[in-house]
Amino acid sequence: MATKKTKRKPVRKTKAQRLTLDEQYMGLEPGVDYFKDGHSLHEFFGWYNYMYDRKKVNLVIISYAKNFGYKNAPRFARMFLPGTMAAIISGLENGVDFIDHKEYPGEGSAGYQKYIHTELRAWNKLAGDLKVKDLNTDHIIKKKRPSVQDNINNKGQSLLSEVDHAIDLWDINPFDMYKHLADNNASSAVAKSIVNEYDGMIDEIKEARDGTDPQLKEGYNHLAKSEKNKFIDFLNKIKSDTERYVENHKPVRKPRKAKQYSAEEQVKKLSYLEEDTYNRISSIAPREIIGSRQLWVYNTKTNEISSYTALDRGGLAVTGTTIKNFDDSESGSKKLGTKTTHFIDRILEGGSITLNKVMSEINSKASKVTGRINNNMILLKVD
Fold this sequence. Notes:
This protein has about 375 residues and is an alpha+beta fold. It contains 15 helices and eight strands. It folds into three domains: about 20-140, no CATH class; about 150-250; about 265-380, no CATH class. α8 packs parallel to α12 (about 225-250). The longest helix has 24 residues, at about 225-250.
């Protein structure tokens, strides 16, 4: 009886597993005979500088200090701890046979042990004095309040554990990235922060598939070329789903509400002539222009009458020294000639029907109006 062939589960390099690739480039962590094998101190520190981030440095030093009874060790987290110290401590814990320290010649690893504890004693005292005003704060890391972007990034990273698990099972269980983001009510900004999270992995698999990197090719040799292509498609789908989610959940910004200005505020910069004693006429209150259907203006300098008719039901408006929202085709200006008093009286005394006929009664060429008002003009009437 033929046995059922089970599908092989691929080995995926998540963030923790990708260190094995780093080790292929940097070599394994320094061991007992590291220096006897011809490695230099520079190479030793270089390995830990590459492999240890700031969080790891602090963890190594603080754990070591706690084990040796330094009571202020937990407070070391508020201080800047050098990566070289973490490297030496890790080397000592791994049994590395050190070459002589410059301050302790002839003592080998014991000299490095003395050096470490000299530094730890100094830090322990400094950590105990953290509240002293004259403390040299250059050695202290001030705890910063997380920024908005920090919070977004942290939320984004918190969503990735389930994604990492799905990638481990990529060829066994289906995974819907869009649904995952929706189920967690991820914001557009949070989703955007993880769009490119797996780009490095996609590039690695492509290089392994194409054979451009021998080490990557060996690292992924458990996958056939067709499987690599399917894996790439799976990862690309995660990215495209995330991009679509970002696009579909962009915050809709409410249009800014236009600031409402009172009639008094709109006309406060309007320049006009308050009174014309020659023709015995005076201007209306400028605020009456706002929202009116029609405005009549008399220019005392050019002896012209101008009519402004509103473009819509919103009526006329004023910006600075200019009439706004008037209909160019229905508005115009004409010189009055010798009948100035007659037409001014017709405008002042007439109703809507009379006002609609006045401009056609003036026997002069019409010209367009610009809306500009100056201190030669009387604001004659509004309708």
